Amino acid sequence: MKSSTLLAILVLQALLVSAAVAKGQGPKKPCCAECTSWSGVYTCDDLLTKCAATCKTCVPVSTDKGTRYRCRDFLPEGCPCKTN
């Protein structure tokens, strides 16, 4: 009885660990070419024809070529970009 309980606990723990690892490997935010830094936090300034699927906060920007979109999410640490 004790061995089956221990086995069940180990299986559940393995499932939780693998789920946590899988969640940490979700879609990564792409780095951008130009960005703005505010207090060490970077946001992307690239204008796109449509918002990236990984972007949570997309802002429309009017341009002479029509509406473009800018992602206002914070960039992940280590993303190189040219600061404006």
Automatic annotation (TrEMBL):
Keyword set includes Disulfide bond: yes
Signal peptide: 1-24
Database matches in SMART domains: BowB
Key word Signal present: yes
GO molecular function per UniProt: serine-type endopeptidase inhibitor activity
Keywords: Disulfide bond, Protease inhibitor, Signal
Gene3D superfamilies (UniProt xref): Cysteine Protease (Bromelain) Inhibitor, subunit H
Entry's Gene Ontology cellular component terms: extracellular region
Residue ranges constituting the Bowman-Birk serine protease inhibitors family domain according to the UniProt record: 31-81
InterPro entries with a match to the protein in the record: Bowman-Birk_prot_inh (IPR035995), Prot_inh_BBI (IPR000877), WIP1 (IPR044167)
PANTHER family: BOWMAN-BIRK TYPE WOUND-INDUCED PROTEINASE INHIBITOR WIP1, BOWMAN_BIRK DOMAIN-CONTAINING PROTEIN-RELATED
Protein name per Swiss-Prot or TrEMBL: Bowman-Birk serine protease inhibitors family domain-containing protein
Organism of origin: Miscanthus lutarioriparius
